[in-house]
Amino acid sequence: MRPPVVAGQFYAGTRAELLRQIEECYLSEHGPGRLPRVGKGLRKVVGLVSPHAGYMYSGPVAAHGFARVAEDGLPARIVILGPNHTGAGSGVSIVTSGRWRTPLGEVPIDGDLGEEIKAASDIIDVDTTAHAYEHSIEVQLPFLQHLFGDAFKIVPICLMLQDESTSLEVGDAIAKAAAGSDILIIASTDFTHYEPQRYAVEKDRMVIERIVKMDPRGVVRVVDEEGITMCGYGPVAAMLQAAKRLGAKRAELLKYATSGDTAGPMAQVVGYASIAVSK
């Protein structure tokens, strides 16, 4: 059992408070403005870029992405990619067994899919150390639980290595393992960190342009070339690579905002975006 490590910090620590907080994200002036309804149609969303800061900052932006996921309906399989903020564990770490807990309950690991992804790449290690105190994947779970209850499983993959080659190989491994499956791949990332609003918006626009053009190599290269402090560009590139191989054709920016927008003006902000990648 992997216990929650940022409950009570990044998001509310009790079930009732967390459900209320998530609904407030949807109803926020920066959120979709309505509570989500889970659809039952033909699923088209393959990938999602979603932020992972404290819900008071990035939750309304994240709600746009999960509202689109809700409309699309419950995926059969979910992979969540996140960056490694702690520096612990392997360069690319996957978990293939057990459960993750949040105040909303327990989420089982999709062991079969996890093992298939691991088998498709020599650079992915089965490793729980990288995940023990990492928040980027954990903060996605309450939004998913709010929508789908206990009806889903996840495969968590944490990337410390985010170079172009590694990111594309991870994406290829996911695509190979998930071929023919109904899958949602979530790339957890925040964008520019702690820069003035104007500079953050300018830099983030450059990355978002590459994402919307579904250019995984371009995402990594523009981050490197422009010195953009985006923490999860590798997960985003891996998601785009996998989504394209699984038939995705377009990416749509659903919402962009900074912490200065959502929490009030501040000297230095962090950028957030929700982007849906669809067939």
Keywords:
globular; alpha/beta; 38% helix; Protocatechuate 4,5-dioxygenase, Chain B; 9-stranded mixed beta sheet; 279 residues
Can you identify the CATH superfamily?
LigB-like
How many helix segments? 9
The shape is: globular
Domain module tally? 1
Biggest beta sheet attributes? 9 strands, mixed
- What would you say the CATH architecture is? 3-Layer(aba) Sandwich
Counting DSSP E segments of at least 2 residues, the number of strands comes to: 11
* CATH C-level: Alpha Beta
How far do the termini sit from each other?
35 Å
Mean pLDDT: 98
Helix proportion: 25-40%
Outline the low-pLDDT stretches.
Answer: none
Explain how this protein is built:
- With 279 residues, this protein is α/β, with parallel strands linked by helices.
- The chain has one domain (15-278): LigB-like (Protocatechuate 4,5-dioxygenase, Chain B, 3-Layer(aba) Sandwich).
- 38% of the residues lie in helices and 21% in strands.
- The chain has nine helices and eleven strands.
- The protein has helices spanning 15-27, 55-72, 111-119, 141-148, 164-178, 197-212, 216-226, 233-245, 259-262; strands spanning 45-50, 77-83, 92-94, 99-102, 105-108, 125-126, 155-159, 183-188, 193-195, 250-258, 269-278.
- The strands form two sheets. Strands 1, 2, 3, 6, 7, 8, 9, 10 and 11 form a nine-stranded mixed β-sheet that branches. Strands 4-5 form a two-stranded antiparallel ribbon.
- β4 (99-102) and β5 (105-108) form a beta hairpin.
- α3 packs across α5 and α7 (216-226) runs antiparallel to α8.
